[in-house]
Amino acid sequence: MMTGVKLVHIPYKGSQFPDLLSGQVQITFNPLPSSLNFINTGKLRALAVTSATRQAVLPDVPTVGEFVPGYEGNAWFGIGAPKNTPKEIVDKLNSEINAGLADPKLSARLIDLGGVPMLVTPAEFGKFIADETEKWGKVVKFAGLKVN
Questions:
Q1: Looking at the chain, which terminus has fewer C-beta neighbours within 10 angstroms, N or C?
Q2: Model pTM?
Q3: pLDDT tens-digit profile of 89-132?
Q4: Is 89 left (phi over 0), alpha (psi -120 to 50) or beta?
Q5: DSSP code of 85?
Q6: Smallest Cα–Cα separation from 98: which of 85, 82, 81, 117?
Q7: Cα-atom radius of gyration of the chain, to the nearest Å?
Q8: What digits encode the pLDDT tens for the residues 69-93?
Q9: What is the sign, positive or negative, of the torsion defined by CA atoms of 88, 91, 97, 102?
Q10: Residue ranges in 1-148 assigned as alpha helix (H)
């Protein structure tokens, strides 16, 4: 959308790595934690990371944003609860999760795996989800994507 480059989407029900490693597929956009071992062993070459900043585990790999200003796309994981969950339970879960993510050993391990711990409040996480939904909704609409 930002560059006019046309790519063919190939939906996989499982891993695309066998086709990528054999050369049947030339490129993938994949979460760093699942690609890092292939990159570190030289089986794959990282061209760029899609995060806004370079990643500590691949400091010499540029961001897409260095070539396409404003580009950022991250895979992320979060924990949610049903809408009517009492605030005190949500706050307790958030407090415990953030405490775990703040632990230097856990944080270092996540970073070593290519992750980036995100310590946020429930309100900040809700805004983050809303922003991501809006951003990717525009991409889906622009590309005319449909559920496979």
A1: C
A2: 0.80
A3: 999 999 999 999 999 999 999 988 888 899 999 999 999 999 99
A4: alpha
A5: -
A6: 117
A7: 18
A8: 999 999 899 999 999 999 999 999 9
A9: negative
A10: 17-22, 32-40, 87-102, 104-112, 122-143
